[in-house]
Amino acid sequence: MPIKKSELYSSLWQSCDELRGGMDASQYKDYVLVLLFVKYVSDKYAGQKDALLDVPRGGSFADMVTLKGDKEIGDKINKIIAKLAEANNLKGVIDVADFNDDGKLGKGKEMVDRLSNLVAIFDNPALNFGGNRAEHDDILGDAYEYLMRHFATESGKSKGQFYTPAEVSRIMAKVVGIGNATSANQTVYDPTCGSGSLLLKAHDQAPVDVSIYGQEKDVATTALAKMNMILHGCPTAELAPPGSSTLANPFFKTADGRLKTFDFVVANPPFSFKAWSSGFNPTEDEFKRFEFGIPPAKNGDLAFLLHILASLKSTGKAAVNLPHGVLFRGNTEADIRREIVRRGYIKGIIGLPANLFYGTGIPACIVVLDKEHATARKGIFMIDASKGFIKDGNKNRLREQDIHKIVDTFTRQLDIPRYSCMVSLAEIETHDFNLNLPRYIDSTEPEDLQDIDAHLRGGIPVRDIDALECYWQVFPAVRAALFGPANRPGYCQLQVKAGDIKATIFGHAEFTAFNHSVTALFEKWKKANTPRLKGIAVGDKPKALIETLAEDLLETFRAARLLDAYDVYQHLMGYWAESMQDDVYMIVSDGWKESVKPRVLVEDKEKKTKEKADFTVGKLKFKAELVPPALMIARYFTAEKVAIEDLEAEVAAIEQKLEELKDEHSSEEGLLSEVIEDGKISKGAVTARLNEVKQEKDADDERKTLENYLAVLEQESDANRKVKDATKALEAKVAAEYGKLTEPEIEILVADDKWLATLAAAVQSELDRVSQALTGRIRQLAERYATRLLQLVSQVETLATRVDEHLKKMGAVWN
Q1: Are 470 and 562 in contact (CB under 8 A)?
Q2: 3-class SS of residue 550
Q3: What is the dihedral of CA 790, 792, 798, 799, to 10 degrees?
Q4: 202 vs 321: CA distance, rounded Å
Q5: Which has the closest alpha carbon to 743: 592, 529, 548?
Q6: What are phi and psi of 491, to 5 degrees?
Q7: 546 pLDDT band (50/70/90 cuts)?
Q8: Cα–Cα 20 to 30 A to 540, which of 71, 202, 306, 510?
Q9: Stated pTM of the model
Q10: CB burial class (10 A; 0-12, 13-18, 19+) of residue 807?
Q11: How many C-beta atoms lie closer than 10 Å to residue 621's C-beta?
């Protein structure tokens, strides 16, 4: 069975639940990630000769499984990890967490149960990394990123600095230019590498296997980085021994003691680090990194930037994440910034949204350095991407569309109003080398101004209608249909009723043509990519597939007018992350025919939540993941579905009749008042009361009403039974149909009915958004100036007169 990303993530986070309470996330990550590591290397390399890693006897995950329920499980897990560490020179890397620490894991039975449950979560046939056919898609590396992101979220402000958000890492990896690397001899370096995620993103972006170098001061975080490198297939990465600061004691040096220089550098240094000069004297720096000036004693942002400049080859390039303050702070920092800009080292600056990072809420920027073309540089390319994000809990997060737009804009050097532009060094000099982005890019939305004359005399300002020019370029006749001249220049009048604005726009031939043009673009993309979707085969690479699909969709919709191609792109990427990738991973692992088979649900009493069955046949419950029953029913059993809907409508009509009877006779003296309890009427209560009134005289009306209600209840029961029987019969037909499906039929159900239908609906939602935006703005303007100010004044005067009259009458009464 293939590893589903959603299931893997769920299992990993479930393992975290076992550890919460005894320690915080910055500590329990060590336990979870070590187990993940041991499980991975055991699945991949146990029993293999000449494997990348040696899994010794007594040092595997299988050995841990035998310890479930063992009174000495903590101590024995430590010994298993120690054997694995010793066999692979990983001491101080995978043995940093103590699995026998009763202060964190509990004492006695509590520890035994907790660790047994923890091992059991990883002891899952669905989490067999050895059989993962999509290994080049780095499913485990993605899982590692998933855990690190959540650990950083839970660790809070003080301990989230070990992780750079993957979205930011991806941008830095792309804009640094490592995608143009041509030789495996080229190098990438991170002087503050943390858990190594940024280095790995850069490495993945390179078309060749560039060499990795990193230094991190924190011991535990260095261990994370080493595990991360192995899990991502980069075991030869050179990581400096932990414990020393890159600034005070840079590890990577040449034979003659100079700083080693690199082709590419990526870094996310600690923001505004106060103790940056601890352990050395910057004024006597042997590496001459601070010739442009000494950064402030309690702010090391530019100290790291100067170290990175010194660590670059003459053709080197870097992407560094820094707080916005480096762009505009004065005094010594201004002097350093001036020298860096004058030498042309800064290729570009990308302003990011606030609250992206786990250690701080302040906005950051990516400073892109390029020594190779420094002497010829005439300007700095700037992007203000501060507005592009979504809320994710208490943090902000970049979407796929935000990442792609930033990278596209930077690599193509696109000038986009209120977003990006090339700023000449001459202009920067006029601002005294202040690089604060708002000086050069006004990202604020234009103010929606009120027109006093229109409020006084009526009419809609023509300038407000002209501001919608992007719409009128696409359907100019719609403007003429909506607006006519007013009684004076500069103003126009709505020619249709406010309630008819939407119908006028939607019903116009130009708007219909626009809809058709967008639909045609989607059909063009669909025609080109349906063969790719239906041609997915065992062993294919899902990440390569989605990249091809998404890039083609983006390029196709660049031709769409009024729509933002990145919005359309986001629909596909969001759907991929939500469910489509799980479908594809199943198919590339097991093939179409095997993946479509419904899975029998086995109840797991240890799980806190139970999976919901898609359908039941006899006593067996099934989950159909690739092709849900609704798709099968829609294609093969529409008649049965309609019949069930008719039966359900009959049930609804009977329920309505019961409700009407209850409402009619539910008053205190009503004929059903005796059988109503907590607003409800049960069959038992009606039957019991009916038996009582049969013995009473003068109760004919109540008896007839009760008998009528009971009869309707019987009708409801009979109708519900019919629905249940028809549903069971349909489920049996659906279950049988799964086994009859041919591969081409499965491809149609999945590619056409599921994936492409979902994306077509997403494109339609973008069309709806465009039309609603235009309709809403016109209605807003029409309503804003519908009533003249003089009319409002007159109305106020009339109402004030009435109030005065009422007050006088009230005063007369009081007197």
Answers
A1: yes
A2: helix
A3: -160
A4: 14
A5: 592
A6: -135, 150
A7: very high
A8: 202
A9: 0.85
A10: exposed
A11: 19
